[in-house]
Amino acid sequence: MEKVVINTDTGQLGTPADFVRRFAELWANPGIHADRFGELLGSDIRLIAPMTPTTTNRARGLRALHKVFAATPDIRASVLRWSETEDALFIEMRFTATIGGREVSWYNVDRFRFSDGVAVERVAYFDPSILQRALLRDPRGWVQLLRMRFG
Predict the structure, then answer these.
(1) DSSP letter string over 71-108?
(2) What is the CATH number of the domain that holds 137?
(3) What is the DSSP string of 11-50?
(4) Which residues form the domain of 36?
(5) Local structure of residue 145 (DSSP, 8 states)
(6) CA 68 to chain centre
(7) Residue 114: is it exposed, middle or buried by C-beta count within 10 angstroms (0-12/13-18/19+)?
(8) Which long-range contacts (CB under 8 A, 24 or more apart) does 72-76 make?
(9) Number of domains forming the structure of the chain
(10) Using one digit for the tens of pLDDT, what is the confidence trace for 7-61?
């Protein structure tokens, strides 16, 4: 991939490294940047992740993401490494959040697929059992789970 869209609102192009840099900036403090995640995503993006329903456009995806932020307001992620192929970008991250009253960390790999430089699909790969155990072990986690599901 030579160029990708790093801001779908303006059409700004950049390199895959620029995409990863913006992605990392957003996840470093998502509470402040919650509304800016959509800038990296095509309008008809398909978002797939464990524990959440698959969404098929940016607006639905952002609503689902806002539910996660509401349930885990201190969630953060740091990018560890990334790589690219002809039409995909892989970003390995380490997430941290307070879940059920305890700090929990887990690893994730996001695979973004691009069409004409626009991110059209994101699949998140992580072990959901880490989060499930954390959410279910304490009543505070139950409340967080309900917020993730229903807002």
Answers:
(1) H-TT-EEEEEEEEE-SSEEEEEEEEEEEETTEEEEEEE
(2) 3.10.450.50
(3) TEEE-HHHHHHHHHHHHHSHHHHGGGGGGGS-TT-EEE-T
(4) 4-150
(5) H
(6) 10
(7) buried
(8) 72/97, 72/98, 72/99, 72/144, 72/148, 73/31, 74/31, 74/98, 75/30, 76/27, 76/28, 76/29, 76/30
(9) 1
(10) 999 999 999 999 999 999 999 999 888 889 999 999 999 999 998 889 999 999 9
What are the pLDDT digits (tens) for 66-112? 999 989 999 999 999 999 999 899 999 999 999 999 999 999 999 99
Enclosing H/E stretch for 118: strand 118-125
If phi over 0 gives left and psi between -120 and 50 gives alpha, with beta otherwise, what is residue 116? Answer: left
Residue with tokens 């098929």: 56
